[in-house]
Design brief:
Blueprint lengths: L4 H9 L3 H15 L4 E4 L10 E4 L9 E6 L8 H16 L8 E5 L6 H7 L2 H10 L1 H4 L14 H9 L5 E4 L1 H6 L3 H9 L20 H15 L6 H5 L4 H25 L2 H20 L5 H14 L12 H13 L9
Parallel strand pairs: 3-4, 4-5
Antiparallel strand pairs: 1-2, 2-3
Helix pairs in contact: 2-9, 3-4, 12-15, 13-14, 13-15, 14-15
Amino acid sequence: MRTTAKDYARQVIALDDTALEEFVRQWVSRRCQYLEVHRFTGTGDMGRDVVGFVTASRHEGDWDNYQCKQYGRTLPTETGILEVGKVLHYSHQGHFTRPREFFFVAPRGVNRNLKDLIFNPAKFKQTLVEKWDQYCAQKISEGISIALDSSLRDWIEEWDFSKIRPLSVEMILEDPAALSVLAAWFGADPGPAPSGIVPTEVEARELPYLEQLIDAYSEREGNQFANHAAVLRHEEHGSHFWMQRERFYDADSFVRFYRESIDAQEIDTFKRDIHHGIIDVHRSAHADTLARVDAVMGQAARLQPCGILEKYARVPVKQGVCHHFVNEGILRWRKN
């Protein structure tokens, strides 16, 4: 039975606080081009759960705060106000700069009153200031009362409250960056990769495996082909040569697609399975180099790698990975 977005939503909602923070850390790491993503834990987090650092200056520069709240209901107003007040207080103390963005990651959403404050930034700011004693003064640090003096008040009022945003589980699941995390945590299906597009002109990155193929055709004919264009004009080898490029680019598109949508380890495992599946055929004796290429291509086509990519690994993809092995120096088509 096909797993739906609602199924994944239920699984995210079922995570405990610690698991939710780790889930969010992994998601945030893929979501934006942060220089670094860090998860703060324990009583000394100062209102930070998951932080995305924008620059090498980390907390001395721009950073985004992802405050994770796993409740059995929508996030309460008092909790939202307290968390914002806490971060602004500790930033006023000099522990870090004020966050560039402040996200409430609340899988069940935020309650109506808190949502109203978030969508009316000036009202949120006014409420925090006017009700500081009610929501924040006694609750930021245990056993310590934090007064809203003029310096802290000015610090709060200078901050842009439009930077506060709610993130529900539905919003997380709509983000393409969440797919790789869902695949890793819950076995989500990443879907098929697009086919590769073969450029008319040979690209520099193709040259290692193409040059070895040209040598293979030359060996078979007993006559050195000048370049790839000469091979393409050959009645028999031209179509064979073009097909190898199709395979190379299918594999290229496949790897690029899944490196962005699932855990990179899945790609590494897939390639390792292909390598183990063809290496004995590659090492065997063959009539010539082109016979070795064809034997490896035939073996690759029959392989059934394990993992979530198995059903999307089309024959040309598995064959094209072998050409990438040659490009990377893992294999050589011609044994000198």
